[in-house]
Amino acid sequence: MSDRVLGLVAVFAGLAYAFAATRIPTSFLSDPVGSKTFPMMLGGIAALCGALIALKPDRPGPSWPGFRTWLALGLAVAVLTGYAYSLKPLGFLIPTAVAASILSYQIRPRATHALATGIGLSLGLYAVFRFLLGLSLAAVPKGWIA
Amino acid sequence: METFSLLADGFAVALNPFTLMLAVAGCIIGTMVGALPGLGPSNGVAILIPLAFSFGLDATEALILMTSVYYGAMYGGRISSILLNIPGDEPALMTTLDGYPMAKAGRASDALVLSGVASFVGAFLATIGLMLLAPMLAQVAFLFGPAEYFALYLLAFSTLGGIASNNQRKAALAACIGLAIAMIGLDNSSGMPRLTGGNMHLMDGVDFLVAIVGLFAVSEVFIFIESHGKSSAIGVKIDKITIPVKDIVRTSGTMLRSTVIGFIAGILPGAGASLGSFLAYMAEKSTVRDNSRFGKGDPRGVAAPEAGNNAAAGGALVPMLTLGVPGSGTTAVLLALLMTLNITPGPLLFTERPEVVWGLIAALLIANIVLLILNVPMVRIFVKVLSVPPGVLLPGVTMVSFVGIYSLSGSSFDLLLMIAFGVLGYLLRKLDVPTVPIILGILLGNHMEDSLRRAMVLSGGDWQYLYSSKIAIGLWIAAIVGFIAPLFLKRFITKPSRVEPDEASDG
User: Fold this and answer.
1) pLDDT for the residue numbered A13
2) What gap in Å lies between CA B312 and CA B94, rounded to an integer?
3) What residues of B are in contact with residue A46 (Cβ under 8 Å)?
4) Which pLDDT tens digit goes with each residue over B31-71?
5) Candidates A42, A83, A113; nearest CB to B402
6) Is residue A144 part of a domain?
7) pLDDT at residue B235, rounded to an integer
8) Is residue A127 part of a domain?
9) Do A38 and B452 touch (CB under 8 A)?
10) Residue B500: what pLDDT?
């Protein structure tokens, strides 16, 4: 079942990609192949592979995690996204400690252990990046230090 | 001998105290990276590349550091294979077959020492092979025009999809995904934006480091959240390191045979170290007179895959340096490193930047000796690394990846893209779609299209030009055979599965 879905997604994505490729703007500087042909070929081949996958799926299919794990994975993605956005305004130390604690808790649900891991990683990695590798990394939000 | 004077120059580069320190540091980091389950060589090298940049290393130094990490990871992969029955990286899978039973029988230290020596023999001889063969191949590579390069890229994808994966359809799809991603951004020849969806951030294209770190490192975190890191627990303890002289002498023939097999497997574009260790093990098992102990802790079963996989790691550098076509996932990452350093691998590298090539080769020879010392008398230090719990390791790896990518561009967009690649990588890994062809596609996509377009300019749009020379025809045939042959061979060769880990408690 999973492979059939994967195959169909690949067919549609491949065709959509090939279609998008037909609308690539061309310029006066052109060669016999042009800037559309290769992407169109790729889309076509991807769609063909998708069709073959859908027609002949692997058995047994993958074992997908349960609902709770999906929830946990969604949370992990949300944490990482938040981390990506907060690194610039909030500096390295606080977002890293928070994100690392949550991820650690998700892998091994022991609160104190996870918190210690988060804080330890935050301080330890900052020391490595800042003093060993010499990265210019803001530690805390702007304005905290005069 | 020209080779020797060039090598002497190389040693002059590599023996400078700072470079030497980098090689040693690379070996130590690499062995740890290889030993830690869930942090394979491609992964480790990928997350370290951005950091190597911010460290301000020049091209030769960065290359020496990262290839030392690469070789180190190849050595280190065996440690968790033998002690935990979990391959630290994919090529080390075959080492679990006899290494873990040997460790369970109370011979863990013998297995570690033996495999360390086998790794050394494989890697050292392969580096010498690289030294002799690469300049010759670089001469041949001068004959390659755009049509030949196009066929060569195709060969890399088809052998990668044919030999190294279980399902050709999925591998081909993965290659298309990678190539399709490479098309995003400004078109080199017309200067027009392609497939960016109007997003300014995508004008420069997708940075391959972002994709690599996302697909390899971030997806690993999701896998570990799903499994709660259950599979990693300390299995076997070791107390004293002794040198099993008898086993080493008895397996010397095995090591040499496996080195040759592994080196050849490594040279094939797209095949790589996993194939090297697999072929070396299978060949050894089928040629020795009494193979009844294989799978139950035969020392030859430990020596063969380790010599094979390390020889393949050296062999894989041959096509990477001379043709710019990587032979494995990790060499693909090393190619990414070269491209970011503005070094174009290929025949010109040997004539125009000999200090890079020969400095690298000299550094590899030194790295091997350092690794032998680290992995035989000092192996216990690295065994300790295995006790780092995944609850600390994985968040740490994630944070290093984020800072690394962030330090490259300073943009949140690249970080978001990396998370997206992580999600994609997780889904594809669950669906058994290989991710290495995606990386290879992203790396080679523009070169592949470029060679196609230049070939068509040369021929005035005649597509038959693509298979008009002898070299091109040979490459096309190899590509087709490489893709199709495994379909028929699969019935005869099946990969042996791992020894069941549930008996770990009684070891």
Assistant:
1) 95
2) 14
3) 173, 176-177, 180
4) 988 888 767 778 888 888 888 877 778 888 888 898 899 88
5) A83
6) no
7) 55
8) yes
9) yes
10) 47
- The total number of structural domains in chain A stands at 2
The answer to whether residues A71 and A48 belong to one domain is no
Partners of A30 on chain B (C-beta within 8 Å) are: 190
Instruction: Give me the pLDDT at residue B506, please.
Output: 32
| Cβ atoms B269, B156 nearer than 8 A | yes
Q: Is residue B501 part of a domain?
A: no
- Residue B500 inside a domain? The answer is no
| CA-to-CA dists, residue B116 to B99, B120, B170, B307, angstroms | 12, 6, 35, 9
pLDDT of residue B1: 60
Minimum Cα–Cα distance from B456: chain A residue:
A32
Q: Tens digit of pLDDT for each residue in B355-384?
A: 888 988 898 899 999 999 988 888 888 888
Task: Write down the pLDDT at residue B255.
Answer: 93
Q: How many CB atoms lie within 10 A of CB A142?
A: 10
In Å, what is the CA distance from B93 to each residue of A127, B250, B275, B276, B423?
A: 36, 23, 11, 11, 25
Residue A105 lies in a domain: yes
Which residues does residue B185 pair with via DSSP β-bridges, in sequence order? B194
Domain check: are A119 and A71 in the same one?
yes
Please report whether residue B503 resides in a domain.
no
Could you tell me if A33 and A75 lie in one domain?
no
Structural domain boundaries, residue A106: 67-132
Q: Please check whether residue B504 lies inside any domain of the structure.
A: no
**Average pLDDT value over all residues in chain A:** 89
Cα-atom radius of gyration of chain B, to the nearest Å?
22
Q: Which domain holds residue B409?
A: 2-495
Q: Write down the pLDDT at residue B503.
A: 38
Q: Are residues A46 and A77 in the same domain?
A: no
Contact between A103 and B430 using a beta-carbon 8 Å cutoff: no
Residue B342 CB contacts under 8 Å (≥ 6 apart), including other chains: B59
Average of per-residue pLDDT values in chain B? 84
The interface predicted TM-score of the complex, written ipTM, equals 0.94
Closest CA to B80 of B381, B383, B346: B383
Q: Closest approach of chain B CAs to the CA of A5, in angstroms? A: 10
Give a yes or no: residue A40 inside a domain: yes
Nearest to B190 among A35, A87, A99 (CB): A35
How many domains, in total, are found in chain B?
Answer: 1
pLDDT tens readout for residues B398-448: 998 998 888 887 888 999 999 999 999 999 989 989 888 898 899 899 889
